[in-house]
Amino acid sequence: MNDREQSEMNIYMERTLDEEAPALKPFLEKGNNVLDVGCGPGTITLDVARAVTPGCVVGFDHVEHRIAKARALAVEQSCQNASFEIGDANKLPFDDETFDVVYSHTVLHYFWNPEHALSEQKRVLKDGGWLVAAGVRDVGLVKRYPECPTWDTVLQARIRFSNAVKERKASFEWDRRPCIAFHETGRRCPEWFFRLGMRDIQVNVEPYRLQHLGANGMEPSSHDLLPWGFDDSIGYNADYELEYEAMIDQGFLDRDTLTQALSEAKQWFNNPGAFHFSAMILVAGRK
Question: How far apart are CA 93 and CA 139, in angstroms?
Fold first, then answer.
């Protein structure tokens, strides 16, 4: 693993079902066979395995070192009803109607085509089973207070740019291209479930990264999607700067607007009355 992958892994290893994804628990029953799409190093997957014993859980991810870590962790914890496979979540290597529950957590917003990913997850789900998209991010669903019109203009430009890149399926030599799919996935998710014909659709919205005076999340970070130049241990900032350069080169944004937005954002973070949060959305439906 490189330094970025190690930093990400350290974050993932802290995740548990109870703390990170408690909203999944009502959909899990003893004896369920479960698929975890985008399982990472498997910390949540193993918690799910314990929750559904004597059922079994398959953790699935496209990154080899994550699957290796998950397999090692399962051995370390003597968890015998969890297995892990590597592959492409856009073409799952499982038969139709294999699982009682198929879920993803903090994953759907990274797909080029989230609706297709959900349709593939539905395919391997048994009739009557639950499809759950948890922890789906949505940026810009709530406006900042005080308002930041130029910053909002930049965000809308990023959405247009992201959609254009996804349509072309081009990465503009950006090695973290999934991040561009981030913005409106959460708000669109219920529509995709409806179009897939899911029944008993449930939606839950929670604040994510609450920002106000004294909040832990009040300091600028790469999640704010502006080139801050801050100390960035994972390395997202350089990726975002590369993305903004591509936006300017392709006419989605001009440099003066970006400079003004950065100044506006810095003033916002220094405003003691500033308030904002991003949304994290769970959508579930029965096949």
Answer: 32
Query: Between the CA of residue 58 and those of 52, 77, 157, 286, what are the distances in Å?
Result: 12, 16, 39, 20
Q: Give the orientation angle of helix 236-249 with respect to helix 149-168, to 10 degrees.
A: 80
Residues 211, 238, 67, 92, Cα dihedral to 10°: 90
Instruction: Phi first, then psi: give them for residue 204, nearest 5 degrees.
Output: -135, 135
d(Cα 29, Cα 27) in Å, to the nearest integer?
7
φ/ψ (deg, to 5) at 119: -65, -35
Cβ–Cβ under 8 Å, residues 223 and 209: yes
Strands annotated E in 185-274: 199-212
Distance of CA 15 to the CA centre of its chain: 14
Give the pLDDT confidence score for residue 71 in this predicted structure: 96
CA 34 – CA 129 distance, rounded (Å): 10
Local confidence band at 178 (pLDDT 50, 70, 90 cut-offs): very low
* Mean pLDDT of the 150-169 span: 83
Of 278, 270, 164, which Cα lies nearest the Cα of 222?
278
Q: In 139-274, where do the E strands start and end? A: 199-212
Closest C-alpha to 49, from 65, 61, 66, 32? 32
Instruction: Tell me which DSSP letter residue 231 carries.
Output: -
